[in-house]
Structures are given as C-alpha cells and as structure tokens.
Amino acid sequence: MKSVATKVTIIVLTYNSSKYLDGCFGSLEKMERGDLAVEVIAVDNGSSDGTPQEITQRFPWVKVVDSGGNIGFSAGNNIAIRQALIDGADFVYLLNHDTEVEPCFLLAAVAVAETDPRIGSVQSLLLLHPERDLVNSSGNAIHFLGFGYCCDYRRPVDQLDRETVRDIAYASGAAVLFRCSALKKVGLLDERLFMYHEDLDLGWRLLLANYRNVLAPQSVVWHKYEFSRSIAKLYFMERNRYIILLKNLRLWSLLVIAPGLIIAEAFLALSAVRGGWWKKKLRALSYFLRPKAWRHIFCERDMVAATRLVSDRDILHLFTYEIRDQEGSGPFTLFIANPLMGQTWRIMKYLIR
After folding, report:
1. Are 49 and 16 in contact (CB under 8 A)?
2. Is the backbone of residue 50 left (phi > 0), alpha (psi -120 to 50) or beta?
3. How far apart are CA 184 and CA 144, in angstroms?
4. Alpha-carbon distance 287 to 283, whole Å?
5. Rounded to a whole number, what is the largest CA-CA distance in the chain?
6. What is the H or E stretch that residue 154 is in?
7. Half-sphere exposure of 287 (CA within 13 A, CB side)
8. Residue 24, class by beta-carbon neighbours within 10 Å (0-12 exposed, 13-18 middle, 19+ buried)?
9. CA–CA distances in Å: residue 320 to residues 1, 149, 323
10. How far is the C-alpha of 141 from the C-alpha of 200, rounded, in Å?
11. CA-CA distance, 288 to 284, in Å (whole number)?
C-alpha cells in the first residue's frame, strides 16, 4: 500500500515585490520536491506595483491570494496558514519575498522535522545575498528583556557546524517550516503584533508547549537582507516586546525581571532622546494605557496557560543576556550594557520558576 505523501504549503507574503520575483519564485521553480506534495501560495498585501498580476502571468503554478490591503506580516501569513490547515497540510513553510532558495532547502527542512514529533519549527540556514558566504541567521536569540536578534550575523559560513541540527530559541520568520499539528495546538501568528517579533512570540509559545525549535544547517536560503535604522519600526519593536513578555511569562517571572526592565527603560529613554525616536518610545508605552490592549494580553495569557507544559525555568537555557553581532551594537553595549545585564541575569534566572 502506497503511503500518503507529506503535504507542505510554502507561503510567500508579498508587498510591492516585483523586483524580487525572479529570485524568489524563479528559485522555487527549481526546488527538489522528492515525494513531497507541495503547494505554493503567494499572499499579496495590497501591492501597487502589479506584483500579484505578474506572479499569475509568469508563475502560474503559484496560487495568488489577495489579502485586501496591507494587513501586516502576521495576518497576511495567517490567511494562507488557515487554508493550509483546512486542506490537511502537514507542514507550512514561511518564506520572505526577498529570498532565493537552494534546490534541496525544503527536503532538508522536512527531513529534520520528521526526525522528532516534538520539533515544532525548523529554520533554514539564512545566508546573506549577494554576500553568499556570510550568515544572516543561524537561528534567533531571545534576550530575557524581550529583544530578539539573529545569531552569527555576518559570520563566515565555513565557520559553522553544517552537520549538526541544534536547538535554537526561535526560528526567523524569513525562512521557517512549522509543523501544522503544533500550530493547531499553540495558535497562529499573533495578528495584534502586525510586524516585528511575531516569529519570536510563536517560537516562545512552542517552547512552552514543549516543542523544539531547531536549525537545519543543510537547508539553505539566501536573504537579501538590509539592516534598517528606520525610526518607524521602533514603535512596533518596543511595543511588541512588552506584549510578548506580558503574555508568555508567568506573573512571578515578570516580577523577577521587573528591576531589569526598569533599569533598561532608563537607558532606552536616554537612547530615544539622543536618537530622536522618543516620540515612538512614548507611543509604544502609551499603547498599554488602552483597555483593549490589556484585554488582548489577558486573553493571550489564558491561551498560553492552556497549552503550557513546561515552566519558565525549563526553557531559560535558550535565553541570553547578551546583545551581540548586531549592526546597532557598539562599545557601550559590548563593554557596559552586556556585563551589567549578565550580572543581573545570573541572579534572576535562579529566582524564576
């Protein structure tokens, strides 16, 4: 009796993506499928450059879905994820529009996922493009104050262990395979976050439900990554990290890290004033004065509690106190902030339960 093929839905969220179509869908057209049943869905978030029409004309094997407008990373991807779940997919793979894939990227990621039913997400090794010998992300780190960032950024790829699958704090939403049964349990991307840190939040929820997030180093995706110093994104980054902390940490853990948050706020306030983004910082904090913000947080806390199988302490080994290898980190971060946060974290992690 012939076994049923593993079903995988690849989801590409597009927004004015015309210049990336050759790289992304052109490379997907050459991917190896093996025994996998693969569907590719492009969800367009209100492009004005003809992206959906161009995909339909040039890549007719791609299913194009119109989201109705720019509804954000989470909501856009969730449209296709929900459809994939209805259609009985075993896995969904989220892929950024500004990427190119190695032919065996999907087979390698699925092969890793199938080694352990507890693997909830598998990140491909993200390399930079056109600097293809440098790392974009070998898995992402979660800082205990809620920050998330790429590991091994700009490290030469030949310095990495390319044979060992390893656990990571969370997988980058730019190139990640999710197990559908895990998503059915912990929920999809939090649409309230809109953009930034939504992958961190989902990865954290998977950990609390006793799933693993891992890196598949032989699954390779090249990312046309551009570091953005845009002040506009700082609102979402600051707001979202607090939402994620408030929804995923138990009350005792929040109380334990509160002194660290207060100290960090003092430094961030100075940085915001000096950097000219203090209005965004105030806007992020003022978000929590809204009753609907807290309704969302309490609702999410209930959902996390309902699926939680491990304690906060059980996953602390995957968290960090350092911020390193990032474009925005300088001498103050390396020689003052990191050592201070290190001393603080050594005390806090013994108190968290």
Report:
1. yes
2. left
3. 27
4. 6
5. 68
6. none
7. 21
8. buried
9. 49, 11, 8
10. 9
11. 8
127/134 Cα distance (integer angstroms): 6
Tokens 């902390």 locate to 245
Nearest to 179 by CA among 117, 128, 262: 117
Q: Which of 255, 244, 166 is nearest to 203 (CA)?
A: 244
For 103-147, the DSSP string reads: TTHHHHHHHHHTT-TTEEEEEEEEEESS-TTBEEESSEEEETTS-
Q: Do residues 58 and 262 lie in contact, with contact meaning Cβ atoms separated by under 8 Å?
A: no
Report cis status (omega within 30 of 0) of the bond before 130: yes
Helices (H), 40-72: 51-58
Residues 45, 13: contact at Cβ < 8 Å? yes
Residue with tokens 């980190």: 329
Domains in the chain (CATH in brackets) are 7-223 (3.90.550.60), 232-351 (no CATH)
Residue (of 92, 91, 85) closest to 13 by Cα position: 92
Each residue's pLDDT expressed in tens, for the chain with a length of 353 residues: 446 899 999 999 999 999 999 999 999 999 999 999 999 999 999 999 999 999 999 999 999 999 999 999 999 999 999 999 999 999 999 999 999 999 999 999 999 999 999 999 999 999 999 999 999 999 999 999 999 999 999 999 999 999 999 999 999 999 999 999 999 999 999 999 998 899 999 999 999 999 999 999 999 999 998 866 567 788 999 999 999 999 999 999 999 999 999 988 988 889 889 889 899 999 999 999 999 999 999 999 999 999 999 999 999 999 999 987 666 567 777 778 888 889 889 999 999 99
- Whose tokens are 């929900």? That residue is 82
